[in-house]
Specification:
The structure is a homotetramer.
Chain A lengths: L1 H8 L5 H24 L6 H28 L3 H5 L2 H18 L6 H6 L3 H4 L5 H12 L1 H26 L10 H12 L12 H38 L1
Helix pairs in contact in A: 1-3, 2-3, 3-5, 8-11, 9-10, 9-11
InterPro entries (chains A, B, C, D): Ion_trans_dom (IPR005821), VG_K_chnl (IPR028325), Volt_channel_dom_sf (IPR027359)
Organism (chains A, B, C, D): Maribacter chungangensis
Pfam families (chains A, B, C, D): Ion_trans (PF00520)
């Protein structure tokens, strides 16, 4: 009996296990869409009831799945404290906590339901690759993130020096200028703050000519780490 | 006789076939420009008549071309149901459908005329390369598109959490926040929505530092797949 | 005598030729800055006189340089009709034309003075590399520029379909929508036009996810052609 | 005694030297945050006093560190005029200068305190790599920066020609147009200035299709120089 359930719950070539995995993935997506839909303002009471029913249904299935996985695993405590065991637990925890506590203080708790997305990692090779690639390039990313942060800080100090007098409402302190620096150096450029003095514009010119190459480095490291990890997969 | 027409209709070293191909390409472009011009508001009745005449002329030529291609092909049904056979058919279909139906309901139908652009693929090696490269990297693109979508979703949930109270008109729900997330992470940054709270700005800072590398991955895969396909072509 | 002048006018290890090259380059830059300065509105008559004097001085030197180069060259007609010979001629032509014609109609002519920038190519290896690299990758660039243009056109048609009814002033025709398409797909995102309907936003989402990789290709080809050309230089 | 202090002050495997290095790094960060915080407008007098106390404390420690480093070094004058010796001196100089001069004229002097960031270079391998990589690729960067500047200048002249008549307040001279050119070609796109004429939009279209590849080159050179330098590190 336990072997039979195990062959279904754990993803393998068994067609039944594929159906099971498919159902769980669909429910995760349904649960996430329902979570997003709850944030739409002025929902009708009828809609709220449906969303609540979907949530209850999802939690029941996820709880059953969690219990089955514990039941199937050879070493129960090992599963419970494994990465996926904790994720499975956190995915249902907020619901049961909410039953006991007053609903008003639950705003932050509600967001914990999003841990369910990580349940998808079990089925998605890309996500697993991704977290491994990040892990391997961790040191490099941190080192160059540091260089990037220093550049952003220098840009903020520079623009503060040039623009503070002309636009005290937008560049009131170096902290405010940091917002400009990050939005400009990543080339997002919302247009909510931008230099208007000649000095500030010339400074922006130089920062952009030099800075784009530097800000692109952590990005490039992540990309190349992922590409390497994909190439390695293909070799296997 | 059939062999002679075939040598003209199918692109080869025959100079006449080059002239034929050139005429068809020019007519496709004329037809697309005419289609675009029709959307200009408040056209004079005279202009409308000219555009209509161009359209009728193009359709007649494309119909003749279609019939000639059927006539020339060795296995008629094989051509009709081939990729290019269907494209050639769809390129003239809207016109003949429009003759039978009331003109008011034709808005969506009108856009079907754009299938003519795909007729250009027959003559453009880059487009053929492009669709083959996309096809080969399909699985990878889908996997990392999924990672990107999760990142975008997380950004949307985060910014909703920080900005909803301060800007309920711009970040009214997670669906609205998704718009901000995609416009920011692709660095388009229209400036129609942007965070104004300190928490939202700090969150944007971290999302941008980490996220740009991830959003760039599907883009990078397409680019590298195309580059490989170009290099392979050069080796031939 | 002619050999002596030639050793000065043509750039080589001779220190005098280096000084000559340096003077010409400085004068080109002075002449370009002076050209830019003339466009500043409401200049004082005194400033105008100085700018005019600078222009006259530059043209005299460039004319002398041109005559010396003709005098030095072994085959006079070969130099006159060579790339640099024509550039040298075009750099002084607008001034002499302006002496004969009424000054009012000279707006377009004035811009011809910018041909002087190309005179710098004689001294700048990067510029020479650049034009050679572009030349070599010409066919590829054109092929993929075509794919990019089709993508931009499709984006414009799509956004026109979604946004025309909601924003007839910004998306009045497909030509207007093309402006949105190029500004969005290059991620410039001025924020002067952006979709406001749900359909338009979802469409933008998909276009951005797919399109960024495609628009980046001509850019990538230019970059890689240049990098190859730089590497080759280093091997020499 | 001197050997003992030297083993602490200079970073090595000695655990005490690690603690010393850690304290100095924390103080640099504290000093930079305190510097940034001073720029916040309308600080309470109490906060000002605390910030002043932090500054005095940091300077005392940095002065002690400087004196110890001189004391430890085998050739005193060699250290004082070395890169790090000068940086250490500049990091404390503004404070002592400020004691002697009237406080009003110190705005520019205040920014000299930021030299302290460079003190971090002693401890951060990434920063050292970075400056070495930039140094090695210096010539290439300058050559292509020049090509980029010419492209930006041409874009500015072009847009001035198209937009000056329609928007004399935004494109009043070529210098003003340069601001548009840099913000557009780096794809920042604040949206403070953008073309509104058909000619200007078509020109922007072509500039963007061609220009993005060129502006990306100096950026690409910095990135690749850094990547090479990182790979070399890994080989060691």
């Amino acid at each position: 009996m336990r072997q039979y359930i195990k062959s279904i719950v754990e993803l393998n070539d068994n067609p039944k296990s594929r159906v099971f995995a498919y159902i769980v993935q669909v429910l995760i997506l349904v649960s996430i869409i329902s979570f997003s839909y709850e944030t739409v303002p002025d929902l009708e009471p009828g809609t709220r009831k449906i969303l609540r029913a979907i949530e209850v249904f999802c939690v029941i299935v996820f709880t059953l799945e969690y219990l089955l996985r514990i039941y199937c695993s050879d070493k129960k405590s090992a599963f419970i404290f494994s990465f996926y065991g904790i994720i499975d637990f956190l995915a249902i925890l907020p619901f049961y906590l909410a039953l006991g506590i007053d609903l008003r203080s639950l705003r932050a708790l509600r967001f914990l339901r999003l841990f369910r997305i990580f349940k998808l990692m079990r089925y998605n090779r890309a996500l697993a690759h991704f977290s491994r690639a990040i892990n391997r390039a961790k040191e490099e990313i941190l080192l160059f993130l540091f260089v990037t942060l220093i550049l952003i800080y220098f840009s903020a100090v520079g623009i503060y020096y040039f623009e503070n007098a002309a636009q005290p409402e937008h560049f009131s302190s170096i902290f405010d200028s940091l917002w400009w620096a990050i939005i400009t150096l990543t080339t997002v450029g919302y247009g909510d703050v931008y230099p208007i003095t000649v000095g500030g514009k010339v400074f922006t010119f130089f920062i952009l000519m030099i800075g784009l190459g530097i800000v692109a480095i952590p990005t490039g490291i992540i990309s190349s780490a992922l590409t390497k990890s994909v190439d390695k997969k293909e070799e296997d």
